[in-house]
Design brief:
Elements (H helix, E strand, L loop, with lengths): L3 E2 L6 E2 L2 E4 L7 H4 L5 H13 L4 E3 L8 H13 L7 E6 L2 E3 L2 E3 L2 H15 L4 E7 L6 H5 L4 H10 L3 E8 L2 H9 L5 E5 L10 H10 L2 E5 L6 H4 L14 H16 L4 H11 L5 E5 L4 H11 L4 H10 L9
Parallel strand pairs: 3-4, 3-12, 4-5, 5-8, 8-9, 9-10, 10-11, 11-12
Antiparallel strand pairs: 1-2, 6-7
């Protein structure tokens, strides 16, 4: 696949990014388990294919995602040339309370490096900062200060932020400290919350990475197979519109998942789209769906079926 600049990092990435949250095996979230053998085969297929971008996190399955990636990287003798790996800083707990301090951020990075078998991280995101206030995140003893120090020390090459609420991500972009953002579930066939954020990123030279283009599965499997949208209870109107989208796609002989994926790929300010894979053949299937011809008339129908702004996640 052709690559494009990852913002101002100097790195180049493919429009598709391999997501690995489910590869750590989180049946409580996804409804199914992924054993180590299948995860290993899937990762080998991902590293051997044309996609050169992979995304993980310290917290995915309590670190199992990173551990499984690290196992495969050791088997391969390291990260393949030209490949970009991104992970995320996550909080821990202290005395039964959330710990998202600067000290915790440093421990998170140490844990990630050990699991992945890497001395240096290419891209490191602050993960779901909505769990604390913006002021806490930016405090002298907070996680952002620690991440900036780790960059100065050469442990981390590039900093990003990955989260939900777009108004909060906008504030982090405005600091000028971050070179990439990940927004999830907010640039889909259903929800357009992140489009303004992505435009802001383009003007600032910040890479915009779109996660969860399938809305947690509903825009891939359909509302009957996946009753939740964005991992939460779904309003009846969202479900009705998703069912109508699925019907429209079927009339045109296009999988709903292909339309959902290509909606993200069509966005002019989206640098890369994260797609979760949990089996080896899914890598090739994703590539095929990214290239499937979709008639313009279907795009027009799907545009009319998108949720109104009052139903967006924001």
């Amino acid at each position: 696949m052709e690559t494009r600049p990852l913002g101002r990092t100097g790195l180049s990435v493919t429009p598709l990014c391999v997501g690995t949250s489910a590869l750590g095996s989180m049946p409580q979230l996804y409804g199914y388990a992924v054993d180590g053998e299948r995860a290993n085969a899937t990762l080998l297929a991902a590293f051997a294919g044309p996609i050169n971008f992979i995304d993980t996190s310290n917290s995915y399955a309590d670190g199992e995602s990173e551990r499984r990636i690290g196992t495969v990287l050791r088997e391969l003798g390291g990260l393949p040339d030209g490949y970009v790996l991104a992970t995320k800083v996550d909080p821990g707990s202290a005395g039964g309370r959330l710990d998202f301090s600067g000290a915790r951020a440093r421990r998170s990075v140490t844990e990630s490096c050990q699991r992945l078998g890497l001395d240096r991280l290419q891209v490191l995101y602050l993960h779901d900062p909505e769990r604390i206030s913006f002021e806490e995140a930016m405090a002298p003893d907070g996680p952002v200060a620690a991440m900036r120090a780790l960059k100065d020390e050469g442990v981390v090459a590039h900093l990003g932020v990955a989260g939900g609420p777009t108004h909060l991500l906008r504030r982090f972009v405005e600091t000028g400290y971050f070179e990439a953002i990940v927004s999830h579930n907010r640039c889909t066939l259903m929800d357009r919350s992140a489009l303004g954020l992505f435009e802001q990123c383009a003007h600032a030279g910040v890479a915009a990475v779109n996660g969860a283009p399938f809305g947690g599965g509903m825009l891939a499997k359909g509302p009957d197979a996946q009753p939740k949208y964005a991992y939460r209870d779904t309003p009846d109107e969202i479900r009705r519109r998703a069912r109508a989208m699925q019907d429209a796609c079927e009339r045109h002989g296009v999988p709903l998942s292909a339309a959902a994926l290509q909606f993200s790929l069509r966005q002019p300010h989206v640098t890369a789209t994260i797609v979760g894979v949990t089996r080896p053949e899914r890598v090739a299937e994703t590539l095929e769906q990214s290239e499937l011809a979709i008639p313009e008339v279907l795009w027009s129908e799907l545009e009319e079926l998108a949720a109104p702004p009052e139903l967006w996640l924001g």
